Amino acid sequence: MALFRNFPPTKGIRYFNVAVFTLTPLVASYGLIAIEFRRETCIFAMGYYVFSMLGTWKTCSRGLQAK
Prior knowledge:
By secondary structure, the chain is mainly α.
């Protein structure tokens, strides 16, 4: 196929990566089905995501200023 012509050849499968990429969504899907939805948990998760990204941004911007 023309789309994959410039891709490098594969040398094998990394089974750890395959397990991580398949088991993580499976565990998340099970959690969505088996656990009841709570508004407090959802708000906490969104807040944790926002504040963790702000911390990452601050660290990255501080690193850029030092150069």
